[in-house]
Amino acid sequence: MLSFFRRQEGLEEAEVLVLEMLAEVGAIYEAATDAAFGGGKSKATRREVQTGDDRVEALRRDAIRRLTIHGSVSPTGFSDTLPYLLVVRDAERASDYAKNIYDLAKYGFDLSEMPGSEQLDADRAVVKDLIERARAAFEDDDEDTARAFVAETDELTDRFDKSVRDAATSSSSGPEAVSKALFYRYLKRIVAHLAALVSSLYVPVELIDDQLDEIEDSDEID
Known about the structure:
The protein has eight helices and no strands. With 222 residues, it is an all-alpha fold. The protein has one domain (2-217): Phosphate transport system protein phou homolog 2, domain 2 (Methane Monooxygenase Hydroxylase, Chain G, domain 1). The mean pLDDT is 87. The chain starts with a helix and ends in a 5-residue tail after the last helix. Helix 4 runs antiparallel to helix 7 (174-199) and helix 5 runs parallel beside helix 7.
């Protein structure tokens, strides 16, 4: 979908800003998960996470400003900027959920000490890799790569959703159940927004939000 729009003058700058946002998402995620997996809360890590989030917000504002200017002078109006506005939204939301993971350390949870910590750490690494791959897929603008990425994330969000439900309905202690349920909820949401972002390379713009609605609805615990 965005392949067409990228050929129009003025949108290349927005693409660069999205790529910078995704790089910041990766840095925020790494700092936040390091804290949640034994690093603990600290002023230095909190500052690192907040500084990254501030950068994402500044990039978001810059991207919207540029897209607004482009839309105001484009012969087609804002119709060619809408896909980029959604992509910017998804990058920002991925940042928000990455930042939320730091709250686990802030409230005293240590996932490295939880039962099943090996799986938690493995899933942490999977999402770190996905953030990097989402950035590469968006930059490469290859539809086949994008479709394969989204297919992989479909399976992953299903698995993370099951992990949320298992933790929320388990007989484990309060701290273990809460921390695991929150962790997998944040992972699922990060992955969902990465998938929506990458799917913009081939999915009609009006269908992108439908995919996110399905993910958000699945957060309800039966």
